[in-house]
Amino acid sequence: VEVARSAQNQSLLQSMDRRADLQLRLQHTVEGLSVVAISYYAVGLMANLALPFAEPFGLEKTGVMALLT
Length: 69
Description:
The chain is mostly helical. It has helices at 2-54, 61-68.
């Protein structure tokens, strides 16, 4: 009985370990996507703020965004 319980516990621990690894990979993926999204919106915001100062130099919004990235 003890051997069967030990094997069952070992199997359960392996399953939990796999699940924890998958959750960690998912968390890293979500964090990476969040950084990309925040950066995208930050560049857009900075471009909108810098656009009035760049217009006298003949720069359009795409040029300002190119300079900011």
